[in-house]
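--- STAGE predict ---
source: upstream dedup step, 1 unique chain passed
mode: sequence only
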Amino acid sequence: MRGLYIHIPFCNSLCSYCDFPKIIAKNDIKEKYINRLILELKSYKNYYDSIDTIFIGGGTPNSLSFDMLEMLFNELDELIDFNKIKEFTIELNPENVDLKLAQLLKKHHVNRISMGAQTINEDILKLLNRHHKKEDIIKAIEIFNSVGITNINLDFMFGMPNTNIGMVKEDLNFIKELDLCHVSYYCLIVEENTKLNTLINKGKIKPLDDDLESDIYYFIADEMKKMGYHHYEISNFAKNGYESIHNLKYWNTKEYIGVGAGASGYLDGKRYDNFKSVFKYLKDFKEDSYELNIQDKKEEFFLMGLRKVDGVSIKEYKNRFNSDPLLDFNLKKFLNNNLIIIDDDNIRIASDKLFISNLVFEEFVGE
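--- STAGE serialize ---
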């Protein structure tokens, strides 16, 4: 089964660390965008019998007006048989959640919420240009629970400038108090075209030491495990049975439809990218598409599979490609360096190397 990803590229303000496709726009642009998005959604109507997950991301989907969201949901109701949908996620900012929104989402089959928390430290939230407080997160969760939506993920970050292990402990204690179903915990990556990068280049703030970032990552992983979370992907933790079905499609290189400005998709063996610019998207959807050959598919399956803590199933690889990954890839160097471990049926990154997994991927690609 496939997934459907819908990108909403609008925000009420721009976070200092984010380089995702997004803009601050007036309602007339947003209305044109939603109409265009619906047109693109309709173009894939022959595929909707094969989807079982939906993910609306951004940007900030709840930066759209209530009426615009309702228009989008009504269209999805027309196109999709929700009896087949196992998971329907929408990303939200906690400060913009109210009962009316929660009731709308419940009415239109949304059963999973993903909210950006980042941290509960107000000074760091200001540095990140986030506009919520700890109390907004608690209130939003209470509202969703009141309408029967209890599968909630919070995104947290670590490695921000001016932070320390004590702040991370406070965030972890907050997670423990909430007893969430799912937590995504990302290390800050300072992207080139961001306000945060400008501040660092001007010497106004100092990035965290790499060794400290590593220590914090493994501390978080240990603490999350103590709280009963399954560490199933480099940056993702779930209570039993609450792993993200949709995101696992990416890590298992399953096909998915991507719609909206800046979205990408993988359909009928082809990958495609939509225009990132909203204004270009309003004129034409796709910027590029390309077909994967068998070697591309093998490499993608292997590398994306290594993002999972359990790694790549040798049996699944053989079934999919009628080939042996131990013969297809030269793993000797990685095995000798204890970067990669063969554990029964699985090839996985060593637990103590997960934080430097990108280095493993880069070395592997360079082979």
